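Just wondering, does anyone understand these tokens?
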Amino acid sequence: MPEATKKQNIFQKMVQYFKEVKAELKKVVWPTVPQTINNTIIVITCIIIVGVILFILDSIFAGIMSSVITGDFFGGIFSWYN
């Protein structure tokens, strides 16, 4: 480290930090509005698909657990059907 940076006080270090943050933010390539909308649609679609899969698996496992607890295997698995 150069001698000048070792003797900076806390305020000088903060100013230097924010200057570096500003310089780095100028390098960022921000997505366009169509890219953002497209990515949002993809994320929402994936969330819906995963939610439906989890609902189906939860229903199946709940039916299995209900059948194990009650001893009525087929009635427990298809309890959601009635």
About this structure: The chain has a mean pLDDT of 84. Residues 3-77 form one domain.
